[in-house]
Design brief:
Oligomer: single chain
CATH superfamily of the largest domain: Naphthalene 1,2-dioxygenase Alpha Subunit, Chain A, domain 1
Largest sheet: 9 strands, antiparallel
Shape: globular
CATH topology of the largest domain: Naphthalene 1,2-dioxygenase Alpha Subunit, Chain A, domain 1
Amino acid sequence: MAIRAQAKAGKRSRRQHDVMLHDGTMLSDLIDHERREVDLRVLSDPMVYRVELERLFARSWIMVGHESEIPNPGDFVLRYIGEDVVIVSRQQDGSVAILLNVCTHRGMQVCRAERGRASTFKCPYHGWVYGQDGRLRGAPFESEMFGNLDKASLGLQRARVETMGGVIFGNFDPNAPSLDEFFGDFKFYIECILCRTDKGLEVLGAPQRALIRANWKCPAEQGSVDGYHAIGLHQSFRELGFFGGGNTAVAAGLFSIDVSANGGGLRCFPVEPSYLEAIAAKGGASNVFENATSTPEERLTRNPPIGMTPEMVSELRNNLSPKQMDVISTYFPSVGQAFPTFEFLLFYGPATATQVGPVIALHSWCPKGPDAFEIWTWVFAEKDAPAEMKEIGRKAAIRTLGSSGTIESDDGEAWPSQTRSARGAVGARQKFRYLAFHGHNPPEGWPGPGQVHTGITRDDGQWLWWQRYFRFMLGEE
């Protein structure tokens, strides 16, 4: 009885910031922690979506671009944090500012260009002028205004800015934890992709954008991390041989070392195929380093990380820790997502009919209402990579990712179908079901942090994504 009373008290305290939806259902009732289910209604309910904008997007660290997109003072791009349009601008001192693109006079967007270079931003409605830093410089007929124009308090609202590996993140919550704290243990793995070389990554052109008629949580849930769908949805890609061969589950891309931390998830695949065959044969119990008789540098020189040449391998020691070197020299982080919408992809894909190329890409999911989102795709290369490698990687990324890519044309069919299912009165009561779990079962000797799940990919990462999602939605984080 005491335990039951404590559980009820805990439920009441958790519901302190709960939200009642239009039919009286509480937001917290849309997730069943015991059965590991989430109502499909989360994809279609307009009130749920409004809470997401206020409690999740306005309080999380959201990717808005990369520093190489705005290399010079005055350079800017327009991006999104939730549905808020922001100006990402390079300042005169080299820092980056993120400004809400909303005039403090009457609310019009002061910047209308997608990208460019400017020393000031002038609202086209009434002519108020703002500097690169967002400060109000002046307005027509200031002397005619009632009282004095308080320029210090009427500048464009600024978001907090932090970067990791050149990727720019923004957050409108002044009380949110730092980016490092927000990512937590997951930072260890993100750095293995973004922070490998001395000069870092650079964008290969402007990001690709495509509007998908689906709820943004469809790709977000999949990205953290659903390897299970590869055997069905991406069957054609497997039949073409891009998932390897041999063991059926290996060929389907189902065997991996999956990692979950702070709502994020990723899949790690072997640098040398013999590792994966061994782990598959032993049901996931293999020592990850039992075949690794050489040093990390020797293994990486023999099999350079995707997008790097053997000559660049020596730079890894300058930028990664010994434990990170151990990870990327055995099972490299390949595909995954940091909570809530920052996805990364690192793999080899078809560049031409006879060539494969190194794909290094980042995604962000930008919501456009409950039933639509924009998928943003940035393609990258290491700055010091040979020009030929950059071009092959760019072609491979275009062929595999985005609206016309061989992989994401499959995903772009599944996500709208899920969202359409959630619109019906009966369909909205159906569930996302998470039925297969490893728990924490790292291979012996695994050097990285987080919850590690070894073997055939299961539902651990996706379920942990939903748990952090609801903590934000219920005001618990």
